[in-house]
Amino acid sequence: MFTKFLNLEMEKQDRIINAAIKEFAQKGYDKASTNEIVKEAEISKGLLFHYFGNKKKMYLFLFDHCTDMIGDEFFKKVDLTERDFFVRIRQAVMIKMDLLNKYPDIFKFIEETYFEESPEVKTELEKKIKQLNDINIGKVYEGIDISKFRDDMDIEKILKIITWTFEKISEEELLQAKLSLTHQIDYQKASLKAEEYFEILIKLFYK
């Protein structure tokens, strides 16, 4: 669908993507201006729509592009041969912190998509986010050593409880960020909170 854009030289692609990330992250979908994007990217508005069709398609392309890029880097770094569940999850948290420091603008854009309320894109975004979370959780949980967990409990239920716990922590951090003026998630605070729950869950569910 975006062949014309993807056939551009990388420097021009990056210029357009960076301009769009900046505009959408700062203003949200409805208030973001394609005029500002083309001005920052140093291209014509006609070319922008030639590459993407319309604002909505560009926005959803940008979401896919950013999440794919972060996901690719994450799974290159995470050691999926590590079979201890909690060691692997702790590792995942540290990698996410490292990627946040490396790509702050991209994370800012992705964070804003979780707060997006525009009816033009909200439904499709929610579907994409759910699919993404389901796929990533499946990959991160794959191949874990279930022998470390207690024998008197259903492993499937244990993993659901752990998943729900960290989903709830994420929801709370997203809500706090949404209510703040900057919409910024305090990842350092979130990882410290996660560590507290790690300790409790290990005592509860490991032998």
TrEMBL record:
<dbReference type="InterPro" id="IPR009057">
    <property type="entry name" value="Homeodomain-like_sf"/>
</dbReference>
<dbReference type="InterPro" id="IPR036271">
    <property type="entry name" value="Tet_transcr_reg_TetR-rel_C_sf"/>
</dbReference>
<dbReference type="Pfam" id="PF00440">
    <property type="entry name" value="TetR_N"/>
</dbReference>
<feature type="domain" description="HTH tetR-type">
    <location>
        <begin position="10"/>
        <end position="70"/>
    </location>
</feature>
<dbReference type="InterPro" id="IPR023772">
    <property type="entry name" value="DNA-bd_HTH_TetR-type_CS"/>
</dbReference>
<protein>
    <submittedName>
        <fullName>TetR/AcrR family transcriptional regulator</fullName>
    </submittedName>
</protein>
<keyword id="KW-0238">DNA-binding</keyword>
<dbReference type="InterPro" id="IPR001647">
    <property type="entry name" value="HTH_TetR"/>
</dbReference>
<dbReference type="InterPro" id="IPR050109">
    <property type="entry name" value="HTH-type_TetR-like_transc_reg"/>
</dbReference>
<feature type="DNA-binding region" description="H-T-H motif">
    <location>
        <begin position="33"/>
        <end position="52"/>
    </location>
</feature>
